[in-house]
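Figure S4 source data
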Amino acid sequence: MYAGGGYGSNMIYLGSTISRDQSYGYGSLSYGFRSEFYATFSAVHLSGITPYMAFYIGSLNYSHTFNNWFDISAGIYRYQVVPSLTDTLFSSFIYGDVTFGFDWKILYTKISAGGLFSEENQAYFQLRNSRYFQTKEFFRKNANLSFDPYINLLSGTLTQVKTNTKTSVMITHPYGHWKRNNPDGVTTTYSKKFGIIELDIGLPVALNTDLMTIEAEPSYLIPLYDDSDYPGAKGFIFLISIYFRIL
């Protein structure tokens, strides 16, 4: 059994901000069984938002390592927003994915395929390369520092927006309210296509002991579609978390 909490500068999920570009704090409780099955419940607070807990996250995860170079994992996640905030934040949704991991010794590659179920169902694909390493033990061999730099490429559904005068491309927000009202005399049509959404680069650094982990994760997001009318999330994001093993 683990308890945790943390603070982030912005919560980006599948290429979109679900904290509306606001900082957030969270608390979580997680139960692990045989280091393969985990059930987690989290509550999230957004700055300046009432009620205090804006939405909740429940997840079930399973992972299995077949040998020293191949593993698989699967997860299902429920994001449940407080009813009074559905028009302000997002519509509640479910996301599920399956991931295949390949350890090339120099790099660790994760290939994930997932589906999101909400107002509009969508598919996503992620390709992540990372390189985990850690320092030698210190504090009488009770602690170490670990590093897991990564590069992640996210693909999913993009929406092409055509008006009388121009064509734009934007991220499709299936759990948000993204269609806009047209000015007088302007007609708009929407069409969808599957494409690359973003590239994100991060460097999680963690202090690990037998009973506690403190992790800081700076990352940088680069949208890979170019449209100034519907800009996506971009720039630095910072997350710091702490976890305690309580049982």
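Figure S5 source data
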Amino acid sequence: MKEWKSIAVFCGSKPGLNPRFMEHTKIMGALLANKGITVVYGGGRNGMMGVLADAAMAQGGKVIGILPESLAATEHRNDDITELLIVDSMHSRKKLMFEKSDAAIVLPGGFGTMDELFEMLTWNQLNIHDKEIFFLNTDGFYHHLIGHIRQMHSEGMLYHHPDNKIRILEKPEDLLLHL
């Protein structure tokens, strides 16, 4: 068990079609705040990102948003959080989110979420860091991706078994088993 001061949360700027995505996002934000863990996220107000930040802030948590200049208008920057950092690029966003976090949780999301996830996984595989990476697999959202990652391992494409680098959570409360 590790003690984390901050966790990067990667998730969609859209709500998705499954209402449980938003429900689990809200629970995760509140859970992290109640445990005194700073939420580091993409800095937007829309979709799952906004729900995550609002839930953490409502519980008195600390929330740090990191938003590229190019997305400050389209993702509706969230100025109602503890700290909002505007950076020059998506790469700078990912790097700063990595630097400000002790672990990462990946909630359902789109291409941006996958980009953030795979950069963290790649850095982990290359021993740039050894931060734990969690998938919140709400209603099986990540079943196929997890299966594909395991297939990459079985085909000899990965340096380590993915189960050594990734933890799967079926519901937000499962994170408590790792705290």
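Strands lie at 6-10, 38-41, 63-68, 83-87, 103-106, 132-136, 166-169. DSSP finds five helices and seven strands in the chain.
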